[in-house]
Amino acid sequence: MRLRYLGYACINMSLEKTTNKTFRLSNLNREKYLGTVSYNLNSLEDIIK
């Protein structure tokens, strides 16, 4: 079994953070991918803290 999705399963109303920034596979490039993953992981870290 591969881990495909990692995130926060709730909408955080007080921090105004989200971990559901996405991209279209048809527009995928390395810069877009790394930016999206970085944004989502940073937001998840802030939410957990």
Main features:
mainly alpha; 49 residues; elongated; 1 helix
What is the compact description of this entry?
The protein is an all-alpha fold. It has one helix spanning 30-48.
Written description of the protein model:
The protein has one helix and no strands. The chain is mostly helical and 49 residues long. It has one domain. It is elongated. It starts with 29 loop residues before the first helix and ends with a helix.
Write the element-wise H/E pattern from the N-terminal end onward: H
Mean pLDDT, as a whole number? Answer: 77
* Helical coverage, percent range: 25-40%
Number of helices: 1
End-to-end CA span: 29 Å
Query: How would a crystallographer describe the biggest sheet?
Result: none
By secondary-structure content and strand pairing, the structural class works out as mainly alpha
Identify the overall geometry. elongated
Radius of gyration: 12 Å
Percentage of residues in strands: under 5%
Count the E strands: 0
* Low-pLDDT segments: none
Topology:
Layout: H1 30-48
